[in-house]
Amino acid sequence: MFSLLQRFQTVSNQAVTYACLIAAFIALSSWLQLIQNDAFSVPAIVSNIKPTLNVRTSRYYGSQNGKPKQNSKLAFDLEADLERLFNWNTKQVFVYLTAEYNGSERPETKSEVTYWDKIITKKSDAHLSLHDIKSKYSVWDLEDKLEGRELTFKLKWNIQPRVGPLIYGETVGNQTVILPNMKQSQKKKKPKQNST
Amino acid sequence: MNIRLELSRFLKLCFVLSSAFMFWKGLSIVTNSHSPIVVVLSGSMEPAFQRGDVLFLWNRNEMSKIGDIVIYEVEGKSIPIVHRVLREHHSETKNKQLLLTKGDNNAGNDIPLYANRKLYLQKDKDIVGTVKGYVPQLGYITIWISENKYAKFAMMGLLGLSALLGND
Amino acid sequence: MSEILEEIKHKLVFPIDFPSQRRTERIQNVILAMGSLLSCLVGFYMQSLTHLMVIYGLSIVIALIVVLPAYPSYTRRKLEWARSKIVT
Amino acid sequence: GSMSKAINVYSIPELQQTLDEALPGTFARLQYKRSFRLIDTKLAVGYSIAAVAAVSFLLDKKFQFSEVLGYQQLLLAAYAVLSLAFWYFTRYVEKGVTYEGTKPDGEKITVKTRFANNEPVYLVQFVKEGGAELETRLAANKVFSEAGYLQTDLLFGWLKEQLETLGRKKLQ
């Protein structure tokens, strides 16, 4: 405390130390709030999934050297209330619909792909009740064909905090769908659908 | 005798620099990432990350999960990119994983950004780290200094002044 | 040049007496500790990071105002120093 | 030059540094011969720490992260071990010793110095070979001028007095 500069340094050093403690308090308390609100077991209903397949030859749809690549899209309904993910440390919630599946030529290959996602920044927008919305992405696989694969859909979320660790979780409730054959898909737009 | 005095004084300066550097190096060895703390430079992940936000990375995970926000480097480009994993394909037998990424704020995926007309990133080769922690805006000082020449001069002047006026 | 710098350096020191050094250190500790505690409580209660930051920022400003300047009361108990001898 | 730099006399670290650095010269005026055992060890360990960091820094500049990862891990381990050794040395071997020396007649002396918290009093402990000990206090305002100069003659006089007291102690 012996000179102006040194007094300024001690104040700012200590201010930074306390700021770190405050940040830790914010991260920890908001995490406890999430647990208290059962944020890790939010139910979600993904239903009425209608997959379609088509063939693409562009590089931006996974085709290499013009080889035809099967691409898959969806339409689906979604009902989920993500309000519980919001507290004072939630900057945004990134919610995304993913599908897991195995390879057909090489069954040891596991894949997970995103069909749809949404950024929610306000608690008032967190109640999702969507009907017959289209997938955002056209999905292709490492293999050329996707037809006949069994897809397990999950709705996952990621909380981006204002300060602290990123938090990931998924909603409760899976949905399994078998992709149609290419011919079926072209003839009639009604695919097979299994629910679990 | 005076040599020892000068050496002792110089050693203090060495300690300041070496401890800062070795802390960084230690962090990068523990996290297995060559730059364990990064500052966001682009707005392609808004509103999650803005320019100047500080990200803490971890790179000991063998596989990335879908939805993870990863930092990757493209051959021939110096600036690392912070984007989200949109798809992942991995083999259960071989330890290899392919990733497709996308910026939250971008319309399309990152295929146009990848080197050599590749369609995927490789987890073990291209990924610098996965974002685990976040502090907003703290890194704006570094951006400001590196991009604004007046700020650069002001900073240099301030450092020079404090070195001259400081007591060491 | 270096003499001018020495001169400036000496003007900018603004020393305070030893008892005040002890006191300002303690006051600064108390202000910042109280400020951070209060900011956490209010911020959590209001569920608002803005409130938290405003309160904590205010406590830093108060600490700076109290501690930084060499107020006359901080320089009253200066010591009697040795007489300087003429250097030959 | 003959005149040292002016310090802020209200700064304990500056007072301590100036006094610690002036002690060897003052002892030399009293015909003591300084022993460099402790300071040389400290400098050797200290500069090997700096050297390890410098090598790590150069490797980092010249090579890719993955190319030299093994070496960097070794360097980091060496840095940690040496830092621990340095800490151990200052804490348990040096223990605040600022000066070690011998009188022309071969008598050894060790001097430990420190300042109490925010108190302008230089606490000095003289230990003579054989166990005779003297703990004394020097008020900083007795040897510094208001302008921030150490009055070396006053320090010399004080030190001489203390050493005489210490010498008498042995006789008792």
Distance between the termini of chain A: 69 Å
Shape annotation of chain A: elongated
- Counted up, domains of chain A total 1
Overall pLDDT metric of chain C: 89
Helix and strand sequence of chain C: HHH
Query: The biggest beta sheet of chain C, please?
Result: none
The fraction of residues in strands of chain C falls at under 5%
Q: Which features would summarize this protein structure in a list?
A:
heterotetramer; A: 196 residues; alpha+beta; five-stranded antiparallel beta sheet; three-stranded antiparallel beta sheet; elongated; B: 168 residues; Umud Fragment, subunit A; 2 domains; seven-stranded antiparallel beta sheet; 4 helices; 7 strands
How would you describe what is shown here?
- The complex is a heterotetramer of chains A (196), B (168), C (88) and D (172).
- With 196 residues, chain A is α+β, with helices and mostly antiparallel strands.
- Chain A has one domain (34-187).
- Helix content of chain A is 20%, strand content 41%.
- Chain A has helices at residues 4-36, 182-187; strands spanning 44-56, 69-81, 90-102, 109-120, 127-134, 150-161, 164-165, 167-170, 175-178.
- The longest helix of chain A is centred in the N-terminal third of the chain and has 33 residues, at 4-36.
- The N and C termini of chain A lie far apart (69 Å).
- Mean pLDDT of chain A is 90; it is low at 188-192.
- In chain B, helix 3 crosses helix 4.
- In chain B, a hairpin with a 5-residue loop joins strand 4 and strand 5 (97-102).
- Chain B is of the alpha+beta class and 168 residues long.
- Chain B folds into 2 domains: 1-31; 32-153, Ribbon (Umud Fragment, subunit A).
- Chain B is globular and about 65 Å long.
- In chain B, strands 1-2-7-3-4-5-6 form a 7-stranded antiparallel β-sheet.
- Chain B starts with a helix and ends with a helix.
- Chain C is mainly α and 88 residues long.
- Chain C has helices at residues 2-11, 18-46, 49-67.
- In chain C, helix 2 (18-46) packs antiparallel against helix 3 (49-67).
- The model of chain C has no long low-confidence stretch (mean pLDDT 89).
- By secondary structure, chain D is an alpha+beta fold.
- Chain D is built from 4 helices and 5 strands.
- Chain D has a 5-stranded antiparallel β-sheet with strand order 1-2-3-4-5, covered by helices on one side.
- In chain D, strand 2 and strand 3 (108-115) form a beta hairpin.
- Chain B: It catalyses: Cleavage of hydrophobic, N-terminal signal or leader sequences from secreted and periplasmic proteins.
- Chain B: One of its GO terms (molecular function) is serine-type endopeptidase activity.
Write the layout of secondary structure elements.
The complex is a heterotetramer of chains A (196), B (168), C (88) and D (172).
Chain A: H1 4-36, E1 44-56, E2 69-81, E3 90-102, E4 109-120, E5 127-134, E6 150-161, E7 164-165, E8 167-170, E9 175-178, H2 182-187
Antiparallel strand pairs in A: 1-2, 2-5, 3-4, 3-6, 6-8, 6-9
Chain B: H1 2-31, E1 37-39, E2 54-58, E3 69-72, E4 81-91, E5 97-102, E6 121-122, H2 123-126, E7 127-135, H3 140-147, H4 149-165
Antiparallel strand pairs in B: 1-2, 2-7, 3-4, 3-7, 4-5, 5-6
Helix pairs in contact in B: 3-4
Chain D: H1 12-29, E1 33-34, H2 37-62, H3 69-94, E2 97-102, E3 108-115, E4 121-128, E5 133-139, H4 152-171
Antiparallel strand pairs in D: 1-2, 2-3, 3-4, 4-5
Helix pairs in contact in D: 1-4, 2-3
